[in-house]
Amino acid sequence: MKRILAADIGGTNSRFASFTTDGLSLVLEDMLRLPTKQFGSFLELVDALEGEGFPASLRRSDMTVIAVAGAVRERVYAKPPNIPWEIDFSHGREIFGEGGYFLINDFVAQAFGCQTDAAVGAREIKPGTAQEDAALAAIGAGTGLGHCALLPDLCGGYIAAPSEAGHASFAFMGPEEQEYERFLLARTGKPYAYGDIVVTGLGLSLVHGFLTGEDLDPAGVSARLTEDCATTAWFARFYGRACRNYALSVLAMRGVHVVGGVAAKNPMLVMHPNFRQEFVESPNYGWLLREIPVYLNDNEDSGLWGAAFYGLMNLR
């Protein structure tokens, strides 16, 4: 029996999980959550984990997989945009001892999480017919807007294609949305709109502020949401647009899995008719988008399962 330490380092919270494996399946042993920005470095965060008496540690695990919200270079370095410190495993043996270790993008973990027990309870947002030999897309709003695709290889498995599409330009349409764009840029000071400030917790606060004049944090907005309020309708439309754009970018004919804390805490934001209507809105490829199934995976620990699954594959 081997032990895998999985971590999902987000802009708001860092989650840790200890898994055991017989080489075929994963068994969740324990979990712990810590506030990311309370710590001045990754090593300070890890020291706190050790101090909690967690059953898995960097040196007591056969495999450690750290998933982080940001682009990863050579599986050892990341400078996440929403975290005030970098992660550097260039001298990993000094940190991990003899155990294996990988640093991966958090949405690589989310995508592989769709292959685990964490996705068993996923809810259907939009029906469709999954093509098993096609790409699967994972997209999710939280502190940022994450993306990853699993692309089929020639051996019955999948290759993860990380993405930073959340930092690509986000298009607004029509006079009302263009007025919102001016509001958004004035409030954020950004030179252009992109997914990380539109379809995220921050974006939820901003669109609510534009529509109501209320200045609330994401939790405050969530408490005000109803099925028929304008904030829900607008945000659902923006979320559907982000999912459509990514589905077209990777031809996600195996399906789109919506993950992340915003939808997990507020399912109505993706179950709303505006989401489905926007997802299939395409002058040329509406027919293709109507064939793609879309699911909501509201298991907020799916990134941990995906990181552990990645570790399991490498242990094999």
TrEMBL record:
<comment type="similarity">
    <text>Belongs to the bacterial glucokinase family.</text>
</comment>
<dbReference type="GO" id="GO:0006096">
    <property type="term" value="P:glycolytic process"/>
</dbReference>
<dbReference type="Pfam" id="PF02685">
    <property type="entry name" value="Glucokinase"/>
</dbReference>
<dbReference type="InterPro" id="IPR003836">
    <property type="entry name" value="Glucokinase"/>
</dbReference>
<keyword id="KW-0418">Kinase</keyword>
<dbReference type="GO" id="GO:0004340">
    <property type="term" value="F:glucokinase activity"/>
</dbReference>
<dbReference type="GO" id="GO:0005536">
    <property type="term" value="F:D-glucose binding"/>
</dbReference>
<dbReference type="InterPro" id="IPR043129">
    <property type="entry name" value="ATPase_NBD"/>
</dbReference>
<protein>
    <submittedName>
        <fullName>Glucokinase</fullName>
    </submittedName>
</protein>
<dbReference type="GO" id="GO:0005524">
    <property type="term" value="F:ATP binding"/>
</dbReference>
<keyword id="KW-0808">Transferase</keyword>
